[in-house]
Amino acid sequence: MTKVAIKKKKSAKLKKPVKLAKSKKYVYFFGSGKAEGSSAMKDLLGGKGAGLAEMTNLGVPVPAGFTITTEACNAYFESNMKYPQGMWEQVLENMKRMEKAMGMKFGDPDNPLLVSVRSGAKFSMPGMMDTVLNLGLNPETLNGLIKWTNNERFGYDSYRRLITMFGSIVMGIDRQKFESTLDRIKEEKNVHLDTELDVDDLKRVCEKFKKIYKEETKSDFPTDSYLQLKLAINAVFGSWFGERAKKYRKLHGIADNLGTACNIQSMVFGNIGENSGTGVGFTRDPSTGQKKFFAECLINAQGEDVVAGIRTPLHIEELKKTMPKAYSDLVKIYQKLEKHYKDMLDIEFTVQEKKLYMLQTRVGKRTAASALKIAVDMVREKLIDKKTAILRIDPAQIDQLLHPMIDPNAAVKVVAKGLPASPGAAVGKVVFTADDAENAAANNEKVILVRTETSPEDIGGMAAAQGILTARGGMTSHAAVVGRGMGKCCVVGCGAIDIHEKEKYFTINDDIIVKEGDSITLNGTTGEVILGEAQLITPILKGDFQIIMKWADEFRKLRVRANVDTPKDARVAREFGAEGVGLCRTEHMFFEAERIKAVREMILSDDKEGRERALAKIMPMQKNDFIGIFTEMKGLPVTIRLLDPPLHEFLPHTEQELQELAADMGVSIERLKAKNKALHEFNPMLGHRGCRLGITYPEIYEMQVRATMEAACELAQQRIKVIPEIMIPLVGHVNELKIMRALVIRVAEEVRSKYKTRVEYTVGTMIELPRAAITSDEIAAHADFYSFGTNDLTQTVYGLSRDDAGRFLPYYIDAKILDDDPFISIDEPGVGALMKYAVEKGRAVKKNLKLGICGEHGGDPSSVEFCHKIGLNYVSCSPYRIPIARLAAAQAALKKAGKDLSKAAL
Hints:
Elements: E1 27-31, E2 34-35, H1 42-57, E3 65-68, H2 70-78, H3 87-102, E4 105-106, E5 112-113, E6 115-121, E7 131-135, H4 139-149, H5 152-170, H6 175-189, H7 199-217, H8 225-239, H9 243-252, E8 260-266, E9 277-282, E10 294-299, H10 303-307, E11 314-315, H11 317-322, H12 324-341, E12 345-352, E13 355-363, H13 368-380, H14 386-392, H15 395-401, E14 405-406, E15 413-417, E16 419-422, E17 425-431, H16 434-442, E18 447-451, H17 459-464, E19 467-470, H18 478-486, E20 489-492, E21 497-500, E22 505-508, E23 512-515, E24 519-523, E25 528-531, E26 536-537, H19 544-555, E27 559-564, H20 567-575, E28 581-585, H21 593-604, H22 608-633, E29 637-641, H23 655-665, H24 669-679, H25 691-696, H26 698-717, E30 723-728, H27 734-755, E31 762-767, H28 770-774, H29 776-780, E32 785-788, H30 790-798, H31 809-814, H32 828-845, E33 850-853, H33 861-869, E34 874-877, H34 882-905
Parallel strand pairs: 4-5, 17-18, 18-19, 19-20, 27-28, 27-34, 28-29, 29-30, 30-31, 31-32, 32-33, 33-34
Antiparallel strand pairs: 1-2, 1-3, 3-8, 6-7, 6-8, 9-10, 9-12, 10-11, 12-13, 14-26, 15-25, 16-20, 17-24, 21-22, 22-23, 24-25
Helix pairs in contact: 4-5, 5-7, 6-7, 13-14, 13-19, 14-19, 15-34, 19-34, 20-22, 21-22, 22-26, 26-27, 33-34
């Protein structure tokens, strides 16, 4: 099967260049010390093309060439893979300019110019798209190349490389067919390296490669240089929508409509002999950030040999030994480029007969630790300022530093992939129940809890496990939210696994069987499930991390709070820089063994008196929780959300669990089943929950308010500052808030009177229903603060369940129905528009109304930026995402300040 069909037609080179006065400019030339582009034109020329243009303008030795724009690529696809008007004529015109600059002619048998055709998108996508080298070679030009270099071996080495790259990349032939043929010839000669083959061997290789090409394509290898060029351009454009490129863009959030540029450049050769070579390098160590030249090279090789790992590269010192002048020039150039770009760069170079040429420069990929060190060091070196340093760091990278990571050098076997719900990595033996996880942890065994989906009752097992894997659920499912809050590695919605809980095993794609006790590794940063125990490394948070966080705090306007449920969570949050608690979910405290019985007793009670007796057992425990959280937060505000979930979540549902509970409580199993049935709702997320529970069972909220205020008053009497903020969930109508606010104030005043202590408190509400947002002006009159519950607001705006949406949302994103998962990043045109409306309406009534967000979006960088734009006071997120939110908030403030300056200048 071929990738491109070659039509028998008149040679493309016979076409005369045509100047079209009104034709759009699609081609930008660089060469002879001048370029039509610059580093500021990455959108149009791609990163590679912009870099080549900039180096040319800086006087760096760059082989002449030109760049076909990303606009041409997009137009090519829009026109059903036909070039836009005037593009090919501009290519031919610029080929002439290149020939003049290099003193050679493309397709000329006596003085042949060869070219490379390489992709180059706006954002670096290393190895994801295609490159073809040595275009223009055919039997006639091959003789000219041999005559020019007086090196027959070099000529045939270049020719076999062209056939391999053109055949595999342009025509879609399995590259292994070429590689295995080459390997057989090396075996026959009893040699290991390509460089050990002589010219006769390489002639045989070329003939065999041509035969493979003809067998696979049913046509001879093309001898028309311009046909080779055109088909290679098509292949580079086509690689933009290749599978690996699409996957890479999806992983890195790169838009599909950017397109790739195509760079056509004069070939320079590192494989002429021992006085030539090629290499790649970084101006600083990309792993550690250390300020030292980090580069590798190969002597007598082309660039693909280094990048593809065909030969083991040598340390750059080898170039210094063999070609000291070229090495000296390389050092001067990399230092010049880094000083010019003011960033760590990735460079590619070739040495042709001891003369150095630069083939690429771009901002280098780096680890999270390296990114921090480079940013801090460059501020100290006065290359950049603190603002630039903050803007340069990807907040998502910070996530890598907060959790154990899989050693990047470890070999792993990935067998499935789900949603990366909570980052980091975890290794352990598979267990299928929360009880088994807790029992194993008690015996110091490390386990991974594997569930179809988790429920609040799994909390103990989730806490005991190293990581959590579920077959169902989305990014804001129970497992995801709780996992992030705990800092647990968590992969959810892994549809490839089929769990057989009773039989204690799961299958992957009906192929691989993983039994209880087998070891697996989870990569919560990528969502990968790995067989066996991968090597983990633990990042250290100090030094550069602390400096960057301190700088971020200098610039950000948004405060950053934490979602916490326990004193331990609060302690971790403070360590990460939390400025308060934006959400304390009181219901999570109910699931501990000694409490759940009292909660169930309350649910099973038939009258108010019975419920109050049960609640009296819970109150001291809840009060102690609040004392612990208030103490850890050391005078910072703590927002306590009153009970939110429906009551049925606290009751067991399996026959065995019901029997155990009936025995424990001394009630009949029939009564429990009847209660379960009575509490059953068709859509519990929109049912009897939140403030609706508080209105129908006010004694529940009364107990929680009393526990909150007694904890606050007791600490106040010890001269410990406390700032309680009591939040009413799921308000949809102002009358609900009026009733609940009156209840809170009545109980709070009773407690303050009892303790004779004037602890200040506020009463607010969550905005998590569209009606609440629309009637924000009415609600604001009775609220001291708002907190947007964006998880539920997204559910109710979209009309979908966050726990079930994982089944189809990935398809929606792949199909471009949605750009992003709305449960990961705020849907600005929909959910965001409602939030903005609510802010404006609310502050029209109360100018200084305090506004925040406590949904999982509070730790998403793009959502944090949106919260800054609409004027919220704070964001709240799980403790392990606080540094990300701090950095994202600083970047949002700096970006807005930059835009404001630009507007002022206009």
